[in-house]
Write a structure and sequence with these properties.
The protein is an alpha/beta fold. The protein has a single domain, classed as TIM Barrel. Helices cover 25% and strands 18% of the residues. The protein is built from four helices and eight strands, in the order E-E-E-E-E-H-E-H-E-H-E-H. The strands form three sheets. Strands 3-6-7-8 form a four-stranded parallel beta sheet. Helix 2 packs parallel to helix 3. The longest helix has 14 residues. The protein is globular. The chain starts with a strand and ends with a helix. The model has no long low-confidence stretch (mean pLDDT 90).
Length: 177
């Protein structure tokens, strides 16, 4: 059975991909999940410099499941390029890199560093809180979302998808940005 899909101009063998976040870059799960079977791996968010993330506790069990607030802990783009991309290239799956930033300029900096890397898509995470907007998600302000989208598209060589925040009154305004 052919399950292949074309997503943003990228041919995937199937539509199954990991969500960015607790899956990391796949190394943590390689003994439990055959990464070759996935259409894509979407990495945990990566920023221009290492982020420590939130202090513990970071996970809370609720009646309906679990909530996490990891705080986008990551090794930074330089170590990500050195360690995580080579790991992922061992597998027959597409690579979607989730990018986070504290400023529009930081997003662009990370995208520029990834421009010549052998990855398939860039997922720009504007759904998490940032410092420049007083703790609001960039994805809650259409003008800021537009600025980030424009900056990123100018320097990206890979297709770009925007990870929008569901915490808005009208998500169509964010999607138009």
């Amino acid at each position: 059975m052919n399950l292949s899909v074309n997503f943003a101009g990228v041919e995937m063998k199937n539509p199954v991909t990991t969500a960015s976040g607790t899956f990391g870059s796949g190394a943590e799960y390689k003994d439990f999940v055959d990464l070759n079977k996935l259409g894509a791996v979407t990495t945990k968010g990566v920023s221009s410099v290492p982020w420590e993330g939130n202090q513990t506790p970071r996970i809370c069990e609720t009646y309906g499941g679990m909530l996490n607030a990891i705080g986008l802990q990551n090794p930074g783009i330089d170590l990500f390029i050195e360690r995580d991309i080579p790991f992922l290239k061992q597998y027959d799956t597409k690579i979607i890199v989730n990018i986070c930033g504290r400023t529009p300029e930081e997003y662009a900096e990370v995208v520029q560093k990834l421009a010549d890397e052998d990855i398939d898509l860039l997922e720009i995470n504007i759904s998490c809180p940032n410092l420049k907007a007083g703790g609001l998600a960039f994805g809650q302000n259409p003008e800021v979302a537009r600025q980030i989208t424009d900056k990123v598209k100018r320097c990206a060589k890979q297709p770009v998808i925007m990870k929008l925040s569901p915490n808005v009154t009208d998500i169509t305004e964010m999607a138009k940005a």
